[in-house]
Design a protein that fits this description.
Helices cover 36% and strands 16% of the residues. By secondary structure, it is an alpha/beta fold. Helix 3 links the parallel strand 2 and strand 3. The longest helix is centred in the C-terminal third of the chain and has 13 residues.
Length: 184
């Protein structure tokens, strides 16, 4: 059975900014464990256009947090680790960002991706984990794999699609609506 995304995520109003804004705000919400790919995501943010044009917010905690914070600091990555946040406060966090990134190789029906879509965020991640929820070029950008170069290329593709941001946000919400409690 697919997961349902709670109604309060649909109420979040994403902060639309002009395409002239230089820094794209990326968000990931996940357990900070190796299988979630946050290490690869951080490495992706040191490559090419992603390194210059993005900042990342990480919501979550677990065994890899200290190592990931240290890695980001040494690499000079623009990243903020927020730890765990109560579910009721998450819609505002999603709405304060431009896109959601999940770098894990496998997901069943990701709650975090559904929440991001409901908040109107395009989603970036691997096709192996997200192809059931994300349509490439419509509701986000899919990478062929989870290697840092593939994730970086997907982010770069997304950066080139800023003119399509409003349409991607609307398509994201429509996809999430199919997972609302009423729809399911």
């Amino acid at each position: 059975l697919p997961n349902a995304v709670p109604d309060h995520f649909f109420a979040a109003a994403p902060g639309l900014r002009s395409s002239a804004s230089s820094c794209v705000r990326l968000l990931t919400v996940c357990q900070l464990e190796p299988h979630k790919g946050v290490r690869q995501l951080l490495r992706a943010l040191t490559i090419g256009q992603a390194a210059k044009d993005c900042q990342l917010t990480v919501v979550g905690d677990e065994s890899q947090r200290v190592m990931l914070e240290r890695m980001a600091s040494v690499a000079g990555i623009r990243v903020h680790f927020l730890g765990r946040i109560p579910n009721g406060l998450l819609p505002a966090v999603y709405a304060a960002h431009d896109a959601f990134v999940l770098a894990s190789a496998m997901e069943a029906c990701s709650n975090a991706v559904l929440e991001a879509l409901a908040c109107g965020l395009p989603v970036i991640g691997s096709s192996s984990a997200l192809s059931d929820l994300v349509e490439d070029g419509v509701t986000g950008v899919l990478a062929d794999g989870t290697h840092e170069h593939e994730i970086s290329q997907a982010i770069t593709r997304f950066l080139g699609m800023r003119a399509q941001m409003r349409a991607m946000r609307e398509a994201a919400r429509m996809t999430a609506a199919r997972h609302s409690p009423a729809s399911l």
